Amino acid sequence: YGGAMTLVSSQKIENFVDLCDTFHIPIINFFDQPGVMIGLEAEQAGTIRAAMRALAAIEQSNTPWCSIIVRRAFGVAGAAHGRLGGINMRYAWPSAAWGSIPIEGGVAAAYRRELANHPYPAARTAELENHFSQYASPFKTAERFGINDIIDPRDTRSLLCDWIGDAYEKLPEMTGPRARTMRR
Questions:
Q1: Which of 3, 15, 39, 92 has the greatest count of CB atoms below 10 A from its CB?
Q2: Distance CA 5, CA 47 (A)
Q3: CATH classification at residue 52
Q4: Domain extent at residue 30
Q5: Rg (CA), the chain
Q6: Lowest mean per-residue pLDDT among 28-42, 59-73, 109-123, 137-151
Q7: 85 forms bridges with which residues in the sheet?
């Protein structure tokens, strides 16, 4: 679960987004989020509740936002990369993967009975994962996921320099205090 949203990381995200939104500071987010932490400890701690507050902060923010999805964007946490529209942009590297659940976990969950009764479960698992991976190409699903463009990682710096210039031109339109509702 490396990189999963935990209680503490969700609170940090919420606070950071609120800070940037309060002072109208554009956000650049290099995104690699495999999901929200699961398990008994995470449930008892209220991790999903904290993650939803972080997502609400992101959705309520008015500050310019640019996400670069570098690897994973799955589940609830996969929505944590800013609203689309206007100056807000969402780019992905060719290494990006997104969806409701990673292929590996999806195959294990959806084909549990079949795999349990199969004489060679590891081989069948690999076969199913290979079959579904052909549909997981970011080039095939980018538009549906709201990706503005799939970019060469080497072009990231110049693209972000252009974006930050555009974002700062929009800032004079975003003055005044920010109202936040329904989170606490």
A1: 92
A2: 8
A3: 3.90.226.10
A4: 7-98+150-174
A5: 19
A6: 137-151
A7: 88
**Which of the two residues, 15 and 104, has the higher pLDDT score?**
15
Stated pTM of the model: 0.81
Q: Which residues contact 147 (CB under 8 A, 6 or more apart)?
A: 69, 90, 91, 92, 138
SS3 state of residue 19: helix
Q: Is residue 46 part of a domain?
A: yes
Q: How far does Cα 85 stand from its chain's mean position?
A: 16
* Closest residue by Cα to residue 79 from 22, 13, 131, 173: 13
| Cα separation, 118 vs 111, whole angstroms | 10
3-class secondary-structure state, position 33: strand
Average pLDDT rounded to a whole number, residues 104-131: 86
Domain presence at residue 2: no
pLDDT score for 102: 75
Is residue 44, in this structure, part of any structural domain at all? yes
Could you tell me the sign of the dihedral formed by the alpha carbons of 89, 93, 99, 105, in that order? negative
Over residues 170-184, the pLDDT tens digits come to: 888 888 877 777 666
Q: What are phi and psi of 135, to 5 degrees?
A: -95, -5
Counted domains in the chain: 1
Q: Are 29 and 65 in contact (CB under 8 A)?
A: yes
